[in-house]
């Protein structure tokens, strides 16, 4: 092992990784840095957490500064900023407090990069032309802001989650409003988009839950995905005539929307456009529309009538799924495709126009060639699912859904289905379940919050298990998973009574599987597991032996306060971020040969940790890996490279003294350790 490399001359070429004009990484020691001429882009994370950086000269010609480029450069106080820069990525100058002015702004050239103040009323200085990505995000104290007339661009997530912002006037010169620029601004009640904006980007006003009024100018030609999604107070909106297409789910979850005026230029009602618009009772679809996408009106529970114009050829899957107030449907002869589940749970449908045609294209989902063979009403009925006394519905493909939360008693025998849909049996009151042999897929949150469920055994027939399937089953005590599934993602999250689990051979990855399983003290892991991430966070685990195939652990055992015995995998290459964070009962750890990196805060807060054995394979120890290890007093450095094993024992203070060039710099982001044991001596 050896200590960190000697510092080289300032701005040595080795300090910069540059390729094709892009500065990908700065590897220098900080101080005053001059970026070489010829660089046109400073890449994402290029100077990330270079805490010893005090000033930087950015040369003329640089046009782009990537996301997180100077994030965390807390001692950066001076910067030479060229006019050539036109774009600054999200959080590029976060935690650069030394660059802010007296009003709390970080302004470089004409670009407002970040607001670091806490005022509730803010006025942006004149001359600023661009409000950069994330400039005001999470400024929860902000209630009102004045934007000068000089501003032309509002960047991605510029005001994201400014939850108390109630008033904003966008200047007339603004032509660009970025992705999620006002997302989750729950205090906003009205917005006027200036004439000159051509596109409303995705998620621009997502979950602005108090937004009631939006004026869209005629200059807009496109509205992207989820632009107004989750605007739960929005009651009406007019889309200007220039808009000919829109992204997915533009008005999804606008539960108060009662009136929508769509332009005659529109060619399609895209996927999930009006998903869960519960207050929508009727809508006029323009004659220009030729297709209705999947789930376009799904769960519009108060939609009574729908007139589908002549010219529509395609109606996608689940287009009117769960529109249970729908009583009349007008479908033209132009329709050539009707997808699965189009009229599922439309129990009030009593009239539907008939189709009179002699021939039909071969690509029709359901054959509708002649009235006397199969009329449209029959198609509707084929898309209304089986229902039982418990509110269970099963579609023609064998997938189970549930709309009503009726009592099922102590034990429930799931009928012979192929899959259980999203939240299919969530919140039900049964204590035990019997799965059918036909079951292949269990979708996300299928049994979430089944608070009385005590025992579950997932059968071998299941090949796909989505995330959070048994989350919040707070009385679940025993569970087993088959080896037919590869991933177990947040499967038993918050199952606080779970004390025994059987995992079969075949499972490969555990992601968040047992978060907050407070009573899970011990578990046998199958040998097939290779990756463990966030799996046991805040669980009651007391001891663990990792299979030899595990090569990475990331935040896996964080805050396992009862964990005292650990045997790591022989194949382990990395102990990543917060792997054993705040494992306050852990006293000793032996890191196996082959581990190359110990990540940020890997053992931070292990207050009882007294002894650690480090192999000479370790190359990287990230800053704060052993912070707050108050009792750590014995470090054994071992080498297996020689025929006879060699070890050197240090107290923690001796170890820090031996590597004082590293430990004397508490803000150093990475310390490099080289595996030449003889260099220690």
Features:
mainly beta, Leucine-rich repeat, LRR (right-handed beta-alpha superhelix), 681 residues, disordered C terminus, 55 strands, 3 helices, flat, 4 domains, 8-stranded mixed beta sheet, 6-stranded mixed beta sheet
Commentary on this structure:
With 681 residues, the chain is mainly β. The chain folds into 4 domains: 99 residues, Ribonuclease Inhibitor (Leucine-rich repeat, LRR (right-handed beta-alpha superhelix)), CATH 3.80.10; 157 residues, Ribonuclease Inhibitor (Leucine-rich repeat, LRR (right-handed beta-alpha superhelix)), CATH 3.80.10; 121 residues, Leucine-rich repeat, LRR (right-handed beta-alpha superhelix) (Alpha-Beta Horseshoe), CATH 3.80.10; 129 residues, Alpha-Beta Horseshoe (Leucine-rich repeat, LRR (right-handed beta-alpha superhelix)), CATH 3.80.10.10. The protein has 3 helices and 55 strands. An 8-stranded mixed β-sheet has the order 41-43-44-46-48-50-52-55, with no helix packed on it. Strands 31-32-33-35-37-39 form a 6-stranded mixed β-sheet, with no helix packed on it. The protein has a 5-stranded mixed β-sheet with strand order 1-2-4-6-8, with no helix packed on it. β53 and β54 form a beta hairpin. The longest helix has 7 residues. It starts with 15 loop residues before the first strand and ends in a 9-residue tail after the last strand.
């Amino acid at each position: 092992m050896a200590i960190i490399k000697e510092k080289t001359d300032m701005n040595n070429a080795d300090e910069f990784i540059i390729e094709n004009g892009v500065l990908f990484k700065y590897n220098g020691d900080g101080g005053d840095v001059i970026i070489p001429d010829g660089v046109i882009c400073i890449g994402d994370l290029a100077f990330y957490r270079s805490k010893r950086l005090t000033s930087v000269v950015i040369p003329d010609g640089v046009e782009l500064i990537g996301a997180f480029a100077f994030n965390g450069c807390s001692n950066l106080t001076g910067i030479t900023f060229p006019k050539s820069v036109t774009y600054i990525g999200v959080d590029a100058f976060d935690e650069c407090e030394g660059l802010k002015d007296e009003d709390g702004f970080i302004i470089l050239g004409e670009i407002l990069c970040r607001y670091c103040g806490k005022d509730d009323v803010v006025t942006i200085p004149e001359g600023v032309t661009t409000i950069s990505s994330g400039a005001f995000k999470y400024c929860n104290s902000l209630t009102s802001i004045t934007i000068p007339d000089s501003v032309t661009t509002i960047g991605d997530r510029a005001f994201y989650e400014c939850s108390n912002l109630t008033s904003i006037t966008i200047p007339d010169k603004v032509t660009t409003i970025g992705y999620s620029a006002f997302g989750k601004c729950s205090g906003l009640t009205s917005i006027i988009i200036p004439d000159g904006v051509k596109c409303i980007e995705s998620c621009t006003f997502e979950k602005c839950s108090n937004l009631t009024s939006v004026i869209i100018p005629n200059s807009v030609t496109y509205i992207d995905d989820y632009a107004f999604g989750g605007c739960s107070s929005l009651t009406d909106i007019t889309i200007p005539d220039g808009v000919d297409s829109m992204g997915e789910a533009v008005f999804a979850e606008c539960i108060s929307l009662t009136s929508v005026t769509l332009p005659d230029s529109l060619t399609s009602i895209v996927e999930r456009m009006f998903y869960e618009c519960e207050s929508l009772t009727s809508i006029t679809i323009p004659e220009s529309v030729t297709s209705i996408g999947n789930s376009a009106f799904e769960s519009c529970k108060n939609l009574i009538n729908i007139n589908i114009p002549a010219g529509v050829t395609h109606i996608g899957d689940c287009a009117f799924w769960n529109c249970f107030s729908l009583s009349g449907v007008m479908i033209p002869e132009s329709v050539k495709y009707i997808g699965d589940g189009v009229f599922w749970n439309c129990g009030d449908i009593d009239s539907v126009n008939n189709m009179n045609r002699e021939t039909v294209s071969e690509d029709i989902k359901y054959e509708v060639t002649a009235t006397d063979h199969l009329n449209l009403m029959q198609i509707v009925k084929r898309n209304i699912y089986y229902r039982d006394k418990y509110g269970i519905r099963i579609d023609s493909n064998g997938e189970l859904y549930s709309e009503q939360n009726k009592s099922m008693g102590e034990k429930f025998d799931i009928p012979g289905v192929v899959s259980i849909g999203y939240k299919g049996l969530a919140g039900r009151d049964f204590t035990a379940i019997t799965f059918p042999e036909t079951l292949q897929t269990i979708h996300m949150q299928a049994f979430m919050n089944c608070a009385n469920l005590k025992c579950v055994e997932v059968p071998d027939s299941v090949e796909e298990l989505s995330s959070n399937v048994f989350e919040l089953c707070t009385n679940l005590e025993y569970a087993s998973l088959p080896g037919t599934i590869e991933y177990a993602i947040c499967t038993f999250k918050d199952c606080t009574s779970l004390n025994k689990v059987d995992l079969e051979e075949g499972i490969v990855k555990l992601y968040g599987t047992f978060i907050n399983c407070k009573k899970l003290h011990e578990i046998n892991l199958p040998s097939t597991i290779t990756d463990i991430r966030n799996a046991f966070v805040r669980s009651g685990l007391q001891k663990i032996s990792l299979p030899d195939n595990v090569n990475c652990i990331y935040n896996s055992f964080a805050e396992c306060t009862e964990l005292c015995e650990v045997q790591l995998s022989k194949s382990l290459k990395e102990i990543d971020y917060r792997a054993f964070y705040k494992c306050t009962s852990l006293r000793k750890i032996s890191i196996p040969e082959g581990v190359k990196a110990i990540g940020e805060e890997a053992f931070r807060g292990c207050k009882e940790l007294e002894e650690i054995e480090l192999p000479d394979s370790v190359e990287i120890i990230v800053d704060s890996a052993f912070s707050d290890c108050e009792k750590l007093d014995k470090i054994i450095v071992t080498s297996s490279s020689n025929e006879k094993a060699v070890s050197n024992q240090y107290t923690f203070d001796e170890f820090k003294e031996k590597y004082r060039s590293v430990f004397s710099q508490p803000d150093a982001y990475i310390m490099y350790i080289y595996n030449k044991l003889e260099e220690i001596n």
